[in-house]
Amino acid sequence: MKKPAVQDLTLEKNMTLDQLIRGYAAAGGFSAKHVATGVDILDAMMHAKDCTKILSFPACIMATGTRGIIKELLRRRLFDAVITTAGTLDHDLARLWKPYYQGTFMADDKDLHRQGINRLGNVFIPIASYGTILEQKLQPLINTLYQQKQKWSTKDLVWALGEHLDKEKKKEESVVYWAWKNKIPIYIPGITDGAIGCQLWMYYQDHRNLTIDLFRDEQELSDLVFDAKQTGALIVGGGISKHHTIWWNQFKGGLDYAVYITTAVEWDGSLSGAQTREAISWGKIAERAQNITIEGDATVLLPLMIGALIDRL
To answer: Which of 113, 188, 189, 308 is the most exposed place for a label (fewest CB within 10 A)?
Structure first.
């Protein structure tokens, strides 16, 4: 049998994350092998000539410390565009102004509700740290933006918010800030599905000409993909952000590099659980593409994978 032998992992003092992940590859064990392959593909994508790189993720991880990993990717300009969900803005902005807290999955949710605490998995989010602070901060800011112009794409809206964060003490913790600072577009096709969308809708009640121009976002996305010689994507989770990323790429013959990280299953037919091989059947990932689906929690895997990638870069 002409296959590499399985090697035991060895843990050495002062070993780097890259060395650990390379050990995953040699160990050949289950999901660890997939993680190592995923880092190899990301590395190849980063070094590919004329490759437009897209980062896609859902909002939930922004309520955790993994937000720091996403921020670092934008701070280092490792991706050219981001496609995400409305809650990314909610959590990124709210955490600049108020803390979220470590909680537990096993909390008494009725008791939390009575205390005014929202639970996101095992993260506790007091109402004062979410809806209340976002309304307090965003309504005046939306009014300021409205005085400038009445029609906004989500990309332009995110950049305008990022610019207004420039005087915030904790601005460098913010994904939105670094998107504006490094002129990396963030597209949010489901902008109304979250607190930021609710605040925009509330302002709209008395300002009926306020418009969110999603078609301008779509035009920019189509231009981004059609003008690219190659495209690659790191896609965390599923939903609208994942689909928007692979949807536009089918019109250029599919992604050339694709790394999925997901906890969803494929047997229920959901997009979130759909593997890269299914996307090949739609032409959303090219037949020749380097691709892998990694099953696991992104809050565990992303710090390992991006740490190893940065070691290499």
So the answer is: 113
